[in-house]
Structures are given as C-alpha cells and as structure tokens.
Amino acid sequence: MLASSRLTFFSCSSFRHKLRLHSLNPSSLNPKSCIRPSFFVTKLSVNLHSEDHFPLMERFWSATSRGNSSLVDYLQQHGVIKSSKVADVMKKIDRGLFVPKGNLPYSDTPMPIGYNATISAPHMHATCLELLEEHLQPGMRALDVGSGTGYLTACFALMVGPEGHAVGVEHIPELVTDSIDNVQKSEAASLLAEGSLSLNFGDGRQGWPDLAPYNSIHVGAAATEVPQPLIEQLKPGGRMVIPVGRFFQDLQVIDKQVDGSLKVRIESSVRYVPLTDRQEQLQRF
Ligand SMILES: C[S@@+](CC[C@H](N)C(=O)[O-])C[C@H]1O[C@@H](n2cnc3c(N)ncnc32)[C@H](O)[C@@H]1O
To answer: Is residue 114 part of a domain?
Structure first.
C-alpha cells in the first residue's frame, strides 16, 4: 500500500487492470451532450492486481537517469513496450528535449511543465503508443488532445510519417510555443516544417475539425465525460484512448466500428490532470 499512496502524488501514471470488452450503439445517445461512459460501459468489472502491478510501479519509480535509450530499454525489459516500432520511435524522440531543465528527464515519472500541467510518465506514453500503434500507420491521421510538451505528438508524427498528419491541440498558449520549440530540436523537426505535424492552440474538447476524421485520437488529460466532438471526429475503424473520471480515472480504449457503433474497454486505472477550462486549470491550487 506504500506504492499506492505514493502514486496519488503523481499524475499521468497507471495501474494495470483486467480487461473486459463492452459495446455501444451511439445512435441511442443524445448527440448534443457528451457521452457518459457509465451509459455504455455495461457489466463493467475491473480487477486490480495489486500483487503484480505495485512491485512493477515501484521499479518504475526507481528507474535511473542513464539516458533516453536506456529508458526505452528499461520499458521494453519490463514489458511495457512490446512493439519494435514503438521502441524505435521513443528512442528517436529524446524525452530530454521535452522536460524542463532541473528535472530528471529519463526517470519514469511525470514531471511538472508549468501552468498546473505535467509531461506524462514514459510508461504512459509507451502504453498509449502501444494501444494506438495499428491506428498510427504511415499515411494515417492522429489527434493529440492536451499536447502539452509536444512529446507524444512528435512520436505520432514519426509513426504516421510525412504522408500522414499528427495534430496537437493545447489550451495554454505558452505551452504551445514551448512545444514548437521542443519539436524543432527533435527528430520530428522536418515533419513540423513540412506541415504533417502541427501544434495548435485551442480547446481540445472541441477536437480539431479541420483535419478530421482521425484514425487515432489520444487525450492526455482526464475528461469527466467523453466529449461528443471527439467521438464525431473519430474515423470508423479508428481508436480513441482517453482517461475518464475525476480523481482516479479509467483509461478507456474506444474503438469505432465501421457501422459507427463503439466498443469500449478499460485498459487500466490512471491519474491525469483534468481536461478542463483554461481558467479553471490556471486557478487550481
Ligand atoms: C498531462 S498534460 C500533458 C500531456 C502531454 N501528452 C505530454 O506528455 O506533454 C495534459 C495537458 O492537457 C492540457 N489540457 C487540459 N485541458 C485542456 C483542454 N480543454 N484543451 C486543450 N488542452 C487541455 C493541459 O494544459 C496539459 O498540457
């Protein structure tokens, strides 16, 4: 339980849960309102495996700071990264370029980036890349809501390549500026210059309609309800990964079927900063 109480101090980190598949026909929902997951996650059963995930989390917290490549090796050794493509991309996008100076960029924890926001923990970035990999193939479109430092948007951009689009949306303008600076120093700089990667200022709850529909949508902040515009901007056959809840959240994996219906499962329990109004975020604490 020591690890459990320590986790509450961090955001954007995860507990692993047992998975269950669930179905939803969105035609039964009010299109004007946000979708309430509790309406469509039926027969939900989540089992916490304390005996296996807490020791694992303890090992994450004690990860050393030997460099980006060692961090990725470490996540591979512990089974968080299984895909060689994900490992390759995370090795190319150096986390050290995205973490504010004075922090340990290669330890597996979230870090503060100002404005009551964080860069997510490496194991969360890896988990989301793994979950979305099939929907981040060359030429596909990816939306990163709450793009923060731009780290994950840059990873998405390398995955979808110059023929695809990786679009970040962030509601703190200073973070958008910082994220552009970060990406310009990274392996994804040419994609930013060419326009297949963009980092935008806006309210991510509205998505980014200009380049919709998206094969993959990642939401990097916790929603109390899945925003309806994001459901609408998800392409049939596409996948959204979004933390849903208040204090502790469920990391939901939402697959839009070709007929438009949604399948939802819970990947794990996580702790993210809220997907919220800008003033509310800046006034927090
Ligand atoms: C966990 S942080 C950053 C995550 C990002 N993936 C990273 O690792 O750098 C979540 C981000 O969501 C942003 N955010 C919160 N609510 C938002 C909203 N309504 N629209 C856009 N961004 C939002 C916060 O400002 C913050 O930068």
So the answer is: no
73: in domain: no
Is the CB of 151 inside a 6 Å radius of any atom of ligand 1?
yes
CB 253 within 8 A of CB 131: yes
Burial of 52 (0-12, 13-18, 19+ CB in 10 A): exposed
pLDDT digits (tens, 9 = 90+) for 118-167: 999 999 999 999 999 999 999 999 999 999 999 999 999 999 999 999 99
Q: Which domain holds residue 10?
A: 2-50+126-283
Look at residue 99 and tell me if it is in a domain.
Answer: no
262 vs 35, 130, 235, CA distance in Å?
A: 11, 20, 11
**Do 33 and 283 form a contact (C-beta atoms < 8 A)?**
no
For residue 146 and ligand 1, the question of a CB distance below 6 A is answered with yes
Judged by DSSP in three states, 234 sits in strand
Of 38-42, 65-69, 97-101, the one with minimum mean pLDDT is 38-42
Q: With a 6 A CB cut-off, is 156 part of the ligand 1 pocket? A: no
In ligand 1, the atom with minimum distance to the C-alpha of 273 is 1
Whether residue 55 is contained in a domain is answered as: no
Task: Read off the CATH number of the domain in which 25 is found.
Answer: 3.40.50.150
From 178, 273, 276, mutation site for ligand 1 pocket: most ligand atoms within 8 A of C-beta? 273
CB count, 10 Å around CB of 225?
Answer: 16
User: What distance in angstroms lies between residue 11's CA and the mean position of ligand 1's atoms?
Assistant: 12
d(CA 103, CA 112): 9
pLDDT above 70 covers a percentage of the chain that reads 77
For residue 276 and ligand 1, the question of a CB distance below 6 A is answered with yes
Catalytic residue among 120, 186, 216, 268: 120
**Is residue 50 flagged as an active site residue?**
no
Domain count, the chain: 1
